[in-house]
Design brief:
The chain is of the alpha/beta class. The protein has helices at 6-18, 30-41, 66-86, 102-111, 126-138, 155-166, 186-204, 224-229, 236-253, and strands at 23-28, 45-50, 90-95, 115-117, 144-149, 170-174, 210-215, 218-223. The strands form two sheets. A four-stranded mixed sheet has the order 1-2-7-8, sandwiched between helices. Strands 4-5-3-6 form a four-stranded parallel sheet, sandwiched between helices. The chain is elongated and about 65 Å long.
Length: 254
């Protein structure tokens, strides 16, 4: 929070100068990059590396940590489904992501969830969900997996309301910080190595106020201000695909 004030920025700049730091690699999200930009404007050579499990940095197609987090979430959904099926339950699984729904969407697609609730798309009409649960139960579906993004939250209360409306046992599981730990996947290790090396190369070339990013499968660098000005939208096609795949599976089972 201190980096949001001019006093805090000046203090950080002084710390760098007092310790002989003339080049800095900032690893994080938009907030970290804004702090890095402020330092760069005060003469500290700064390079940004996108590192966040939320995948919500607009300038890059990939952020370090996402693959590890979403694989953890996917594996958890797979395990919850076993109990959900054997007990014929509705299961709400809340995943992280702050106000971005990428972990929810990807884990939902990978694990074959019946519903994925995203901050970017959800209209908070629970009756639609209730109707789908009842309809699918009539078609012989023994479980119903709902992936709920952190930005929506309140999974325990949602489970109580859905159980009351459907008469079907409903349980909520909040995965929490287990998604932020553990051993990183190969993709995160390789991506982190390449981005880190590029950041050092940029500093060695005397460059500053740049962000390392992945665009079109290639590693590039962008101006801090240009990167921060970009907007990112979640794919409507992928959201629709979650529901269409669920109906396809029902028909195959029949």
């Amino acid at each position: 929070m201190e980096m949001l004030t001019e006093e805090g920025v000046e203090q950080a700049v002084q710390v760098c100068r007092d310790n002989g730091i003339d080049g800095l690699v900032v690893i994080g999200g938009d907030g970290s990059f804004r702090g890095g930009l402020a330092l760069a404007r005060h003469g500290i050579n700064t390079i940004g590396v996108p590192g966040t499990i939320d995948l919500d940095i607009s300038c890059t197609e990939y952020t370090i940590g996402f693959d590890s987090a979403v694989n953890t979430a996917m594996e958890a959904v797979d395990k919850v489904r076993d109990t959900s099926t054997s007990h014929e339950r509705v299961s709400i699984i809340e995943v992280m992501g702050r106000n971005a729904g990428y972990i929810a969407l990807w884990s939902g697609l990978a694990a074959g969830a019946e519903d994925v609730l995203l901050p970017e798309k959800y209209d908070y009409d629970e009756q639609v969900i209730v109707n789908q649960i009842i309809e699918r139960r009539k078609r012989g579906k023994k479980h119903h997996i709902i992936i709920n993004a952190e930005g929506i939250g309140h999974s325990q209360a949602m489970a109580k309301r859905i159980e009351a409306a459907t008469g079907i046992e409903t349980r909520a599981t909040i995965l929490g910080y287990m998604q932020r730990g553990g051993s990183p996947t190969c993709r995160d290790r390789v991506t982190g190595t390449i981005m880190g090396a590029m950041a050092v190369d940029l500093l060695a070339e005397g460059k500053s106020s740049r962000v390392v990013a992945v665009r079109g499968g290639n590693y590039i660098d962008l101006d801090f201000e240009e990167a921060l000005a970009m907007q990112k939208e979640i794919s409507s096609y992928e959201v629709d695909l979650v529901h269409s795949l669920s109906y396809t599976l029902i028909n195959v089972q029949k």
